[in-house]
Automatic annotation (TrEMBL):
Residues 309-370 form the TRAM domain. InterPro entries: Nucleic_acid_metab_PIN/TRAM, PIN-like_dom_sf, PIN_dom, TRAM_dom. Signal peptide: none annotated. It comes from Phascolarctobacterium faecium. The chain crosses the membrane at residues 5-29, 41-73, 94-112, 124-142. This is PIN domain protein.
Amino acid sequence: MLNRILKLTIVVVFALTGLILTEYLLPYISDFFGYDLYDNGFFGIALATIVSGAVGIFVFGGLGVAVAPVLIYHIMGYTERMAIVLSKVPTSDILVMTLGIGIGLILANLLGGPFSHLPIIGPYIPLIFSLVLSIIGAKVALRKHKDIVGFFNRSIPSLKGAVKPAAVKSLALSDRLYSKNKLLDTSVIIDGRIIDILKTGFLEGRLIVPNFVLEELQKLADSSDNLKRAKGRRGLDLIQEIQQKNKEQLLVEDTDFEDLNEVDAKLVKLAKQTEAVIITNDFNLNKVAEIQGVSVLNINDLANAIKPVVLPGEEMNVFVVKDGKENNQGVAYLEDGTMIVVEGGKKLVGENTAVVVTSVLQTSAGRMIFAKLK
């Protein structure tokens, strides 16, 4: 049904174009032949006007019928792509952006009106103002998203009787439970565990990969060093895999900061501007971001948090793999990679033995268990 309406619209537009064009060209044709084509006619309409109009409608209408399928194909494809893009944008962002565009158009009308009477360029100045100010309005509104939403949220209780207390309470609750966007840094992309966490469904909100992070991965992938090249390619492959499996959750952000050179500094600044959370494995970035008031999710902290709890006095069987740093110590590992320092275990390297846990040391870098022979 939509295709038929579009086809009919295209044919009508082409036919009207042919009618207007022939009407415009008829005086020039009359002058060219030196014959007044407006002499004869019916009901006050020249015969030449009727004939030329019919020819214009027929020719251009036929052209419209011919090109309609191609135009409809491109129109439908474009609108579908736009619908896909807009469906990924949060509703609040669309509303805020629309508000910004509206304010920009109002300002453009006020500022461009006085210039519209200028000769030659006058009619085009309001159009330029409208285009520029609507783009500026949309960008400013998106960057002030939280302030605008907060303003409307604060104004809701002031409408006496308009909103019930229960509704206001539910709005506040939904605001507290709102899932922030997550910025991925280079280290966590190369690490690769982020995709396993995504599969479990524990990560909510939009995953944002800044363009400058992609550029850093590209530089690593193009490096002459084999290890760096492997890391860069692994990171790019992981981004591609996330796009295929979590397409609606991943967003590539092209915002950049020319005044900053370090990727970590750009990441922290972008997180502060967008109020997003940084996901990283980088200990130094973790500390710098926290100092500047940016929330950080560290994959290593998550991995340590979900490791089985080991209590002093607990017995376990371990395989001593090597000597420890101190005299008479042996080193063993749990299945999750946790290192166990066994007092008196040096003599049991290469053997299974029973040990008793004496203490557990927990740090951001990992967990270490101290044990003694049973």
